Amino acid sequence: MATDSAARTSTQRIPARRGRRQAPADLWTFPLIVFAVHWVIAQVPASLALLYGTTRPPDPGATSGESWAYGVKLGPMSGLAHILVEPMRQWDGSWYRLVAIEGYSGNTAKAAFWPLYPWLMDWGSRFTGLSPETVGYIITNIAFAAALVLLYRLVALDLDQPVARRTLWALALFPTALFFTAVYTESLFLLLTVGCLLAARLGNWWVAGIVGLLAALTRSAGIMLLAPMGILFLQQYGFNVRRWFPSIFPAALPALGPVIFGWHLTTVGLRFLDWIDVQWQWYRFPATPWETFRCATVGCTATVPNVDQPQIHRGVDWSWVDMLLDAPGWSTITSSAFRDTFARGDWLELVVTGLAFALLLIGIRRIPLYYYALVVPPLVVPLFSPSSVHPLMSMPRFVLPMFPLFVIVALLIRNRTMGFTLGTISAVAMALLSMQFATWYWVS
Fold it and tell me: One digit per residue, pLDDT tens: the chain, 444 residues?
């Protein structure tokens, strides 16, 4: 029944403000239970790893006191923040902290990080006196809890309540869902994405447009909300242009996100398109999607703009499996050599990206059309700009706000045994990746 309902929803016109299903009776309690379980699985291993584990040895040339990510100096935190926030602020969290403290002037590389999240960190820090990363941590966790509530409502509206419940579990227990607890934008972007589409689905276009604009100020992928919003708009208003007004104006608001960000960059001495132009500093280069997959699997030699020497990537590295088979045991698993090989092998990026495309194929006619429009652009666009360091860099976390992928997983789970087994395996993987992340090993 859920599949048939989804197919009808994807092809039939959805009248604005009509046919609303009643919200689930446990609209708040169930998502908050899922959030609590997720938080424990992501946070506790990360905190224990930071307190009692071994941090990754510094890269050659790094000095003590540096974060080993971009050379940004991060001093230790104190009190409860040392236990909760410090293990979750690593890698890009140090960049968001830097933007919150310094703004975008100076280092052009900061233009790669979109402004809403660090602005909120800065404003919250000024108001509360807390550190910017502590404010970011609080925003992240509140946003994820709220996102689960809205996602529960949206999927129950489009499909049914059991599918919505399984979707929340699939999303919250996904191995890389630790980023919903870290000082990253995934939680805020998911909240704004779901909030935008739920409002549009219910015909509240001014709310949808404003929330969509905020999403487009959080991540570059926010402007791609125009695709699912456009489908919902046409399903509600049809192709009669006279019926489009005035709702067409708020529906187009996400397009202003890059404009506002680009304008802000010019006010601090940078260029309007620096948010695009600085990507070479992450060794990104133009390529076709099939070239990206070739680079990720068998390797490639890449010419990176503004980098004199050709960059060589040797392809996916599964040697951590051989290391484990040759010397299975706790000493191998906990060794820095094994953990670093496990982290840098690009196998996680390849597996998650392949899984995402497989789910899209499996989900044909199982989910509403606007769900597809939400996933396809942000899944395909990064394939045109791989990195010579990790060709599919960040894809394991880029997929997290693509909630329709987890709806498809929920549709495929038919019994509790299957769901419990997959959920347990996924949760254990998330705990392990959380420990890696907290001790400065690369995750995504």
Answer: 344 444 444 434 455 544 457 888 899 999 999 999 999 999 999 999 999 998 887 665 555 444 555 666 788 899 999 999 999 999 999 999 999 999 998 888 999 999 999 999 999 999 999 999 999 999 999 999 999 999 999 999 999 999 999 999 999 999 999 999 999 999 999 999 999 999 999 999 999 999 999 999 999 999 999 999 999 999 999 999 999 999 999 999 999 999 999 999 999 999 999 999 999 999 999 999 999 999 999 999 999 998 989 999 999 999 999 999 999 999 999 999 999 999 999 999 999 999 999 999 999 989 999 999 999 999 999 999 999 999 999 999 999 999 999 999 999 998 999 999 999 999 999 999 999 999 999 998
Helix (H) or strand (E) holding 215: helix 205-216
Task: Look up residue 247 and give its amino acid.
Answer: S
Residues 6+ apart with CB under 8 A from 218: 114, 116, 117, 185, 188, 189, 192
Contact 88, 137 (CB under 8 A): yes
Q: Alpha-carbon distance 213 to 389, whole Å?
A: 32
What is the C-alpha separation between 20 and 204, in angstroms, rounded?
Answer: 13
Q: Distance between terminal CA atoms of the chain?
A: 37
For the chain, the structural domain boundaries read 2-438
Instruction: Report how far residue 381's alpha carbon sits from residue 219's, in angstroms, rounded to the nearest whole number.
Output: 13
Closest-CA residue to 374 (of 397, 405, 350): 405
- Cα 208 from chain centroid (whole Å): 20
Q: What is the pTM of this model?
A: 0.93
Instruction: Give percent helix, percent strand, percent coil of the chain, each to the nearest 5.
Output: 65, 0, 30
DSSP letters for 236-300: HHTT-GGGSTTTHHHHTGGGHHHHHHHHHHHHTT--TTHHHHGGGGGTB----HHHHHHHHHT-E
* 132-158 vs 2-11: helix crossing angle, rounded to 10: 100
Q: Which two tokens stand for residue 333?
A: 């698993």
